Amino acid sequence: MFFESDEETFREKSKKVEGKPIESKIDTIMERLEMMTQQIDMISRYLSTVSKRVGKALDASVAYQRDLDDLERRINLVKSRMNELENVVPEVEIKESIGRKAA
Prior knowledge:
Layout lengths: L18 H70 L3 E2 L7 E2 L1
Antiparallel strand pairs: 1-2
């Protein structure tokens, strides 16, 4: 329990505003902001370069896949042509000279 004589008093702290410490804090904050801005710009340029390289790799991959598809199509055409010829031309046995059948 508090009695009137036991009451605690609170004094207001005097607020001294000094120009220099606030200005130096602002300068420090501005320097940090400038450094962060430079770092963000550098990261942005790096990501842009990576993006361009990935884009080029994807384009090359698509072109490579087209080449593979074209090669597969040609192989299938040759196979089908061979099958057609196999059905048209009868087998000729040349066991005496080679030892195997030829189509």
